[in-house]
Amino acid sequence: MNSATAPESPGLKPATSGFVLAAAITVLFNAALAPLNHFMASLSGNPWTTHGLADLVVFAGLGFLITNTRVAEKTDPNRLIVALIGPVVIAGLGLVLWFALV
Could you give the 3-state DSSP secondary structure of residue 33? Predict the structure, then answer.
């Protein structure tokens, strides 16, 4: 397709792009918490409750931070999709390996 006649990709609102990047980072953070299940269980009695609360805090905090700094606003939506899918695949494989070896 000729780039001179191709329509521009639609832009995203700052909040959308900010929270997409926050989701990508949170996915990796979530996978990194897997080895800490015993420690997290000591905090709330259930490791998955602590895990979920930590993920929620990281996602919301990063989402608002990235949205307010407008870091992701100029990023192409297709790059944001790749930035989200890549960490999901990496974290998924990491979790499979972690639970297969433990």
Answer: coil
Write the DSSP symbol of residue 70. T
Tens digit of each residue's pLDDT, the chain (102 residues): 455 555 565 677 888 889 999 999 999 999 888 888 889 889 888 888 999 999 999 999 999 999 999 887 788 888 888 999 999 999 999 889 888 887
Distances (CA, A) of 8 to 2, 3, 11, 19, 60: 12, 9, 9, 22, 30
CA distances for 18 relative to 39, 46, 63, 77, angstroms: 30, 30, 5, 11
